[in-house]
Amino acid sequence: MRFAPDPEHRAFAASLHAMLTASDTPSVVRDWSGGDHTAGRALWGRLAEAGVFALAVAEEHGGLGLRPVELAVAFVELGRHAVPGPLVETVTAAALLTESGCARRLLPALASGGSMATVAYGGRWALDGDVAAVRLTLTRHALRLTPGHGPPRPSLDPARRLTPLAPGGELLSTAPPLGQALVLARVTTAAQALGVGLALLDRTVEHVKRRAQFGVRIGSFQAVKHRLADVMIALEFARPLVFGAALTLRPADAAAAKVSACEAAYRAARAALQLHGALGYTAEYDLSLWLTKARALRTAWGDPDTCRSVVLDGHRRGP
Question: Which of 96, 129, 243, 301 makes a 20 to 30 Å CA pair with 187?
Answer without folding.
Answer: 129
